[in-house]
Description:
Layout: H1 2-8, H2 16-27, H3 29-52, E1 55-56, E2 64-69, H4 74-83, E3 89-90, E4 100-103, H5 107-143
Antiparallel strand pairs: 1-2, 2-4, 3-4
Helix pairs in contact: 3-5
Amino acid sequence: ALNDVKYSINSYTLNQTAIYAGVEAVKDIDYFNRGIQKVITTREWSEIKLKELGFSFPKSGANFLFVTHERIPAKEIFEALRSNNIFVRYFNAPRIDNYLRITIGTEDEMKRLITFLTDYIKEYKNSVINNREEQTNENINCRR
């Protein structure tokens, strides 16, 4: 019963000032539409870059992408990102434990994410290649 109460509370609360600013922003249709367009443009750019890095995801019309990588477990990527102060959501739950929820941030934030992931994936691939070479060399030495 206590868990039901605990999980019924929104962990992303807003204060009065934030609520007022949000209401006023929505009233200004031009500002609101420019904000939406920025998210769409940044999301589309991010989709292209993430696909180039081996990520896949369902089509999104939201302000986030739900991504998985073809070779690297989501938890490993999550931990690497977190250790570099880049925050995404990881869900340790059946069926979605190999996915990350990446909220579309500013253009600069998304560039930082893509730059980090590009370097991380390059290092990951190099370590996999080096491990294979070491195993091959060990197998050759064992046969001698």
